[in-house]
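Lab notebook, page 48
Experiment: co-folding of the full assembly
Goal: obtain a model of how the components sit together before planning crosslinking
Operator: M.T.
Materials (sequences as entered):
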Amino acid sequence: MTNAATGLAHGRRRETNPHRPQTAELTRELEMSVGYVLRRAQLAVFADFSARQSEGAVSRPGQFALLAVIGRQPGVTQTQLCAALGIKRANLVVAIDQFERLGLVRREQCDIDRRANRLHLTPAGTQALSRATDGQRKHEARIATLLGANGRRVLIELLNKLRTLSEVAA
Amino acid sequence: MTNAATGLAHGRRRETNPHRPQTAELTRELEMSVGYVLRRAQLAVFADFSARQSEGAVSRPGQFALLAVIGRQPGVTQTQLCAALGIKRANLVVAIDQFERLGLVRREQCDIDRRANRLHLTPAGTQALSRATDGQRKHEARIATLLGANGRRVLIELLNKLRTLSEVAA
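Observation: model returned without errors.
Model output:
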């Protein structure tokens, strides 16, 4: 049954109601900025990464990156991880603490300097990384399908340029 | 004075020491994934945004986006903001609470449903947005300088494609 005045089914509000600004209208200017669009893209990518992971210890890209580097370089220190991944020590320690509690990572104590702890995956950690890698590959394959090989290559180039932003003359 | 054995100045450790894996080596595989490179680029962009802001209430891109949308659409509701910006209600409420405490935003109470609060910038909020916009424009200009007009356009296209990632057939 439709509303005689609006021609719309009962309960539907016409989208052009001036008291209900369109979502797109609200962000029209923001959509012209790289910073905003980059953030929205990252939200979508983050969500897809998580959606491709099976139940387990790895649900976020950052967790995957940590396990992957430790797996690739057994004995890597927390300091090296921070430098390699661009993460703050405080955040790294929290993440490694969690992995240690879950039995995925073990710290090889260095008595002289606690900062020099070398990190290793346990057998359970190696398994978790293997499962997480399967999901991460599915996720990256979906991105490749969406962008095409050339689009993907160009995107990586442009993103890598952006990483040098601090070097641009003020 | 150099070390006779290594030819390096005293105190310098040769970068090829096998016990000190190169930072780049640690992340070689991650650097081939869009997800990782996207995140590293976003860290750089976030840092530059903050660096171009003068002392004040806006230090993060998300705070800028909120003030910008409220400024553009006085009376916008919290629900509309969440939908427009893709942020969780809980996080939005925290941010608006902080803006309210700082005297930049006021809530127009709706007695029937607290969720329908309409938001407005105060005069101080309008000033804060104006200053933040100056900084945001400098930031975006640096990005444009770095990427060039074409690079910028292509990057935005590719990032917008990424935003549709959830629609890719599993």
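Interpretation: The first helix of chain A runs from residue 23 to 26.
Next step: discuss with group before ordering constructs.
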